[in-house]
Design a protein that fits this description.
Number of domains: 2
CATH architecture of the largest domain: 3-Layer(aba) Sandwich
Order of helices and strands: EHEHEHEHEHEHEHHEEEEHEH
Low-confidence stretches: none
Oligomer: single chain
Radius of gyration: 19 Å
Strand order of the largest sheet: 3-2-1-4-5-6-12
Number of strands: 12
Largest sheet: 7 strands, parallel
CATH class of the largest domain: Alpha Beta
Distance between the termini: 25 Å
Helix content: 25-40%
Mean pLDDT: 95
Shape: elongated
Length: 267
């Protein structure tokens, strides 16, 4: 299966390159790597960029040939770039695996349109553990009911630019789905000053930033006399790369559609 990586010069992009290049025994072949225009990585060997031996794939800045040649493209970039890449994936009938966070409603609509023509797997977090956590949160929220207050706490490194994290919001959507409510109507994303008593049924979010934390997420179900906490802690970004490659392999031969990691794990 022929793989391409866009945004390959970033920290996550290099992880994706490494995962593809070390997964030859799973039938993975790297055929292209794309970085943004003006990147210092342009012209370099993608293998060396990933910290491995040369692989004879040069880093380019034009994604069009990549989407025409690859079977699957892994994309952990920016919302604007991902939106453009989804259109290229639709034209090339290329599997598009998206780990980009901070997508707007317009971006999501663009992905849905592109998914009419090719398989797209989109998840705020490609980790297998987080995918299982989402399923557990939905089930617990459905089982415990409104008498348990839901709070979602997340912490990431100081350089993360969006808050709450895409994973925290995905966990919030899972909790809302378990209670059969709309997250937008129940989410409380900030508290400051005299807020009054907590509203029943609210789903709260708290955000922490600092150091080099890869990603910690805890969903708290707080009831009278007891508290249940479900936690996932990431110690390395390679877990996201492994999940992305697994998603692409799963999508090979699938019908066009917008899929999630829950589909990949059959949850």
């Amino acid at each position: 299966m022929k793989f391409g990586v866009v945004g390959c010069a970033g920290r996550m992009g290099r992880m994706l390159l490494r995962e593809v290049l070390t997964s030859r025994d799973r039938g993975c072949e790297l055929v292209g790597a794309v970085a943004r225009e003006g990147s210092s990585a342009l012209g370099h060997d993608a293998g060396i960029l990933a910290g491995l031996d040369p692989c004879n794939v040069r880093v380019e800045d034009d994604p069009v040939p990549l989407f025409a040649d690859a079977d699957a493209v892994l994309d952990f970039t920016t919302p604007t770039a991902t939106r453009r890449f989804s259109a290229l994936a639709a034209q090339g009938k290329t599997i598009h695996v998206i780990g980009t966070t901070g997508l707007s409603d317009g971006d999501e609509n663009a992905l849905s349109k592109a998914a009419r023509h090719t398989p797209i797997i989109q998840a705020a977090n490609m980790s297998l553990g987080v995918t299982l956590l989402e399923a557990l949160v939905e089930r617990v929220a459905r089982t415990l009911g409104d008498e348990y207050d839901i709070e979602i706490l997340e912490m990431h490194h100081r350089r993360k630019v969006d808050a709450p994290s895409g994973t925290a919001l995905a966990l919030g959507r899972a909790a809302a789905a378990g209670r059969e409510v709309a997250l937008d109507e129940k989410a409380v994303r900030s508290r400051d000053g005299h807020t009054g008593a907590r509203e029943a049924g609210a789903i709260g979010f708290a955000t922490l930033r600092g150091g080099d934390v890869v990603g910690d997420h805890t969903v708290i179900f707080a009831g009278d006399g007891e508290r249940l906490e479900l936690t996932h802690k990431a110690s390395g970004r390679d877990i996201y790369a492994r999940g992305a490659v697994r998603a692409a392999l799963w999508a090979h031969g699938r019908k066009p559609g917008l899929y999630t990691m829950r589909d990949v794990l059959d949850l």
